[in-house]
């Protein structure tokens, strides 16, 4: 009972703070600004202002929605680990709320008044990621015209959120491991070691243990990150949360678009609840946003096409070229039971190239082989 009320007060505190976006933004950002070495460096990182402000306008800053047992379990884990300095690895499919959880953990931690710095390892080109993380001295490489403060330095005494950590290039992984082990690093082009006191929260939608088996992720780094794993369940496994989420987003967007929407009719709610939401909460949120824009009366009115899509979902196809390449190689490997030489011959590429691609794309060769063993049994 005492724990429950402590938990409610923590969550209430978190939610109250989140409803004060400007105060929170300033509180978190001011120490960071004052840490910045000079005006040039400040200008370099000025986009961070924009990121924090954009985040504050996002519904992610309102209360966490969902009463399902699986979500509640993940929440309890997040609240429990928040007060420690322990490294957290948040895993979950795309759109399940990994970043949302990372913010919550930071906001409930003793570091909440310091910066929460985010690095999306998948969004920054591999060649730039090292200087983004560790910073660089002027002239460290072609194009390094000024000194640059890295995210590890910016996050000192605060939290560093390594988003999509499964996409961290293999060649950078030993460097990250070193900072995690020794709490020190050097800027590119410098031999001076810098001590850092950073709490790491990492997130990924990939299965890192499979990537370790496929040689695409270092085992030692995996164990360093996987100290306190939190799995966020996909929406299809907590369909009971869908009505509450749908109402929450309807209220949010109705307010934003100055509409008066009083409810969601039972047929629409049933279709929402039956659908599997492969894009999870983000997909649901976008669906509701479009429906609110289209609604003219007092009830939420999605378009007929959208309702059809919910009832007859189209199988999700890979979209990006990399996804297509990954799916094709995985399919061929499946056909030849994971035999690399045969797969390379079928694909018309050298075996070494196939090894490289399997690693880079995080393809699980072992499971193709396992399927062979299983079918033999
Ligand atoms: N429990 C929740 N209650 C309300 N909103 C939520 C909840 N979880 C996530 N959201 C919202 O869902 C959206 C997606 O969340 P978030 O960006 O944290 O997901 P993600 O797992 O990091 O996605 P991706 O893998 O695509 O980066 C956000 O707009 C967030 O506000
Ligand atoms: Mg994310």
Write a concise synopsis of the structure shown.
The protein is an alpha/beta fold. The chain has helices spanning 2-18, 21-35, 39-44, 47-56, 69-82, 98-107, 126-134, 151-154, 173-182, 208-213, 219-225, 242-256, 266-274, 280-294, 304-311, 321-335, 340-347, 351-361, 365-376, and strands at 88-91, 116-120, 159-163, 184-186, 193-195, 199-204, 228-231. The chain contains 19 helices and 7 strands.
Q: What report would you give on this structure?
A:
It is a single chain. With 377 residues, the protein is an alpha/beta fold. The chain has 3 domains: 2-231, P-loop containing nucleotide triphosphate hydrolases (Rossmann fold); 238-311, Helicase, Ruva Protein, domain 3 (Orthogonal Bundle), CATH 1.10.8.60; 321-376. 53% of the residues lie in helices and 8% in strands. It has helices spanning 2-18, 21-35, 39-44, 47-56, 69-82, 98-107, 126-134, 151-154, 173-182, 208-213, 219-225, 242-256, 266-274, 280-294, 304-311, 321-335, 340-347, 351-361, 365-376, and strands spanning 88-91, 116-120, 159-163, 184-186, 193-195, 199-204, 228-231. Strand 4 and strand 5 (193-195) form a beta hairpin. The longest helix has 17 residues, at 2-18. Residues 58-60, 64-66, 92, 94-100, 205, 281-282, 285 line the site of adenosine-5'-triphosphate.
- Name of the CATH class of the largest domain: Alpha Beta
CATH fold description of the largest domain = Rossmann fold
Number of domains: 3
Structural class: alpha/beta
Which runs of at least 5 residues are low in confidence (pLDDT < 50)? 1-6, 9-62, 371-377
